[in-house]
Amino acid sequence: MDDAGGPATAQCVGVDGEPPGAAAENQPVDGGTGARSSPTRRTVVRALIRPFVTVAAVLVLYYLLPLDRGFGWATVGWLLGGLAAIGLLAAWQVRSVLRSPLPTLRALETLAFTVPVFLVLFASVYVLLDTGRPGQFTEPLSRTDALYFVVVVFSTVGFGDIAPVSETARVLTMLQIVSDLLLLGVVLRAMVVAVQHSRGRLAGRSGPAGPQDEAARDP
Predict the structure, then answer these.
(1) What does the alpha-carbon distance between residue 118 and residue 114 come to, in Å, rounded to a whole number?
(2) Which residue has the higher pLDDT, 156 or 118?
(3) Which of 156, 73, 151 lies closest to 118 in space, CA to CA?
(4) Rounded to 5°, angle at Cα 87 from 84 and 90
(5) With contact defined as beta carbons under 8 Å apart, do 126 and 141 qualify?
(6) pLDDT, tens digit, for every residue of 80-107?
(7) How far is CA 105 from each of CA 45, 49, 89, rounded to the nearest angstrom?
(8) Element containing residue 73 per DSSP (H, E)
(9) pLDDT, tens only, 34-85
(10) Nearest Cα residue to 186 out of 118, 131, 133, 126
(11) Element (H, E) at 119
């Protein structure tokens, strides 16, 4: 009876005294590394192309917007609301970067949307101001001129060929400078920290280091 029950018992127990299901569950994935499957090439290509498409779409929208309604308190409210929306969007995108399997590319996508929208928002306000109240700057502003002025202020180059003349234009320019500092100092820093945190989390999912890895790290 012991011989008859032996094979059946071996089949139920499996290898190394574990049930067959447990042995299958303990098998590492991806060739024994325990890491998650890498993103496909198509996913990476899409993530690289999407920022360029986003920037182009924002610029096309800027040149198509009706910006001939003049400047007023409604424009100021629209500007402040747009800045608040950009801040909320950036905070939400930080969480998206933390959950993304491609955190660096995801952060680039976020910046490729946030920065152009930020610049276009101020450029639109400058166009509305100069259209409704001519003489606000050293020369009349077209949409391209306003975008150029915004980029110059954002990059802190300061060529001086276009400058605010009126008090309103100078207040708006100061607001943009302060917003530039917040965007670069807070949003960009948050993106960098989120990318580092996400990459560390993804590296931790690859499983604990084996004896060979431990020996390789030891001097």
Answers:
(1) 6
(2) 118
(3) 151
(4) 150
(5) yes
(6) 999 999 988 888 888 888 887 778 778 8
(7) 10, 10, 17
(8) helix 73-99
(9) 444 456 777 777 777 888 898 999 999 999 999 888 888 899 999 999 999 9
(10) 118
(11) helix 103-132
